[in-house]
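Quick start: what a row looks like.
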Amino acid sequence: MAEEILMPRLSDTMTEGVVATWNKRVGDAVKAGDVLAEIETDKATMELESYKSGTLLHIGTQNGGKLQVNDLLAVIGDAGEDISAILAKHSGGAPVVAAPVESAAVETPVVAAAPAPTATAATLDLSTMEEVVLMPRLSDTMTEGVIAGWNKQIGDTVKKGEVLADIETDKATMELESYKDGILLYQGANAGEKIQVNDLLCIIGSATTDVAAIVAASKGGGTTAAPSAPVAVATSAPAATVAPAPAQAPAAQAVVNDGRIFASPLAKKIASEKGIDLKYVKGTAENGRIIKSDLEAYIATAGSAPQAAAPVAEAPKAAATTVASVPAGVVSFDEVPVSQMRKVIARRLGESLFTAPHFFLTMSIDMDAAVAARTKINENAKVKISFNDLVLKATALSLKQHPKINSSWLGDKIRYNHHVNIGVAVAVEDGLLVPVVRFADGLSLSQIAVQVKDYAQKAKDKKLQPSDWEGSTFTISNLGMFGIDQFTAIINPPDACILAVGGISQVPVVKNGAVVPGNIMKVTLSCDHRVVDGAMGAAFLQTLKSYLEEPLKMLV
């Protein structure tokens, strides 16, 4: 008996899924446990396994198409079985004669693409077209992406798994791999330009693909405006990539990378700025991936190639110096486009500050015992412990005792979290990232230190993944290392609180009736008054103070 497979909910926030690729075609035999398809959710791309055996009789959408959770994804049954009743149930009573056409489109994609020229732009659904690649949502807060650079140009042959482009999101620069084979026929934007999530990113197909009709459909207009779009990109996109060519390494050097080149986004950016051809650079990371240190080593030994590129790379700095030396009384300024990261910081923290009623509680903590304990721990520790690590550990233990601080405002309900996931604000060039130390209350000081250092380096190298910054229940922002004594921080939603940590200052304090020098650190707790009241926040800070003033309590 035929059985329907609905689009599953693969993450707690998922409302729809995109079929990245089908591993089975209509008519194929399927066994329980076989991977039917790869589904792209709002968090990751995941494999969907079949839970029954039979023949794949129907698919709900083609590669690149999206379905809402609980929409009909596939039907598995016996070969030749009548599934019209299932299709009718999920089509809202619409005629089911369209089912064979859809199956045929999957089995013979060339036939499916043929009707496109005769269809109007209004009748084409981009999400169901196999040739179309839409801008994916690469982070939970992403609304648009910037093309940092195209790795393939129009006319290039593309294979599944090859990197199409580097996409700059609000959190990091990430590589976008192709999930199909074909020819790159169209690019939706040039390097440096932005595209909204689910807008047309590119078209990968065959020589018979009607690019004009697809582009017209993406613009929501008639087919008369479509022919100019591919032409504009075809002539302008290569122009941006031709300029660096003369600055490539000399042919006398040995080529060490033949074919696909694996390199971090930062390494690619440096190579582009310095005019270095990455095929001459040996990578030392996993799978021969080229990283920043590899380029630094190459520049130190490559000789004439980097030197030839140096005047080009230094040109912007010279211009900046000229601007800086403008005579007094002359109006002068620079305008820089807002980065994706800065846009999201502005939007989310603006919403937090003007939506959540903030109040602030400040407490001074005697850090004499913490200073002594840290010195003693680091005498023989393989991993050096920072004051930030001590604060994080003390905060995690305090949150276990005060679960109302470790909570989230969800509109019509409040979530009190039993787990402690602490976000650690890390300053990067374009703004701020908040990687999450998970289950921090159960980690040792050395484990916390390793994780925080690793996340900080990843953040600066733009290597953080969405899973690294999602799921915080509380956030710490520490500006003490920058000489800040005290400050207030804006709550990182959906957390109910954030702790702002200042530096340790030596000030006169009274102990046992005498004025002596003491190490004092001020912390400020920002609270969402919809969730946390003043007494709750004060009790939490008292517990935090007790741990930091007697650090041995954290070790028992």
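That is the whole record. Confidence is low (pLDDT under 50) at residues 94-123, 222-251, 303-323. The first strand starts at residue 3 and ends at 6.
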